[in-house]
Amino acid sequence: MKKIIFLIPTLSIGGGERVVSELSLNLPKSIEKTIVLFKEDISYPYKGKIISLGVNFSSKNIFLKGFYYLLGLLRFKKIVENEKPDYVISFGHIANIINILSRAKSIVRVDNYFSSALKGFGGRIYKFFIKLLFNKAHLIVEVSKASAHDLVENFGIKKEKIKVIYNPLNIKEIDNLAKEPLEQKYQEIFKNPVIINMGRLNNQKGQHYLIEAFKNIKGAIKNAKLVILGRGELEKELKKLSESYGLKNDIYFLGWQKNPFKFLARSKVFILSSLWEGLPYVLLEAMACGLPIVSYDCKSGPREILAPDTDFLAEAKNIEYAKYGALVENRKKELLSQAAIKMLSDDNLLNKYREKSRERALAFDIRDIIKKWEFLAPK
Length: 379
Hints:
It is a single chain. The chain has 16 helices and 14 strands. With 379 residues, the chain is α/β, with parallel strands linked by helices. It folds into two domains: 164 residues, Glycogen Phosphorylase B (Rossmann fold, 3-Layer(aba) Sandwich); 194 residues, Glycogen Phosphorylase B (Rossmann fold). The strands form two sheets. A seven-stranded parallel sheet has the order 3-2-1-4-5-6-7, sandwiched between helices. The protein has a seven-stranded mixed sheet with strand order 10-9-8-11-12-14-13, with helices on both faces. Strand 9, helix 10 and strand 10 form a beta-alpha-beta unit. The termini are close together. The model has no long low-confidence stretch (mean pLDDT 94).
């Protein structure tokens, strides 16, 4: 029997966390799974044994942070010695570094476009570790072709070290969850045409661009509403921005939802306003619910999902009505509003992309994506 360790900060909200959940549930029974968390924070279902490092990496004191890094590494090395895994698969910056330094057979999963994502002092430090350590990993699993290209071209990572595996969707589970009824307090909102966005409320997800675009959308479609699912450090700022535009009664911040699919399924259009990504999980989840998509053509992922037959390094200029959704030039809020207005105003276009979304989502079903991970347990 093969033994796999997943190393990830928590099993709570987030795309990487969802991937660990799906892999633990769907990898063959011949693989023994252990999930090592920094702290025991669990929202998603899983199969396997849970071990907590009991280490707090959130300290802002640089000396304490360094101490916790060392403590976490020592504790994890002890776990590796005891468990003797065939592979360790890590998710997230700190986990990836610890994984490689532990001298396990490390598989590092990268879920972001590093050239855009790594900013400031912390970003510079992580860039240094990428260039120093990533070629020492057994394998790097990238979530998109563009982000894999970025690693090779801008970080000196060997191409042969990288394997691209797209994020998986549990279509059957999503279909069941989408049918759950909405609570009474939300039903009135969805009697209107709802634009929905989902993700952490932070700079990367670009919700401030979306709110500014929604101001223009309201000018054309008076009864439109905007629903934003998620939590984050910019929540107060985004609410103030909504109020400053007189949109307090038209924009709904509904927080993190255990079942977002019942909200997605009752919306009209999903807008991805992210400034950068890896392969945006929320885009796939919305498409699984049959939602037409308007998305910034950010690096990376949206183009590979919505326009898979085009050059993955291409960038939209203006609005591109692609095979599976509308791609919008990055950071152009006026174009974002134009694409949304056209989508909501044109029933033929809306229905076309509703069908195309569902069709495309099926290509990411866990039953197909899990085959890409079969190298973990060769027959």
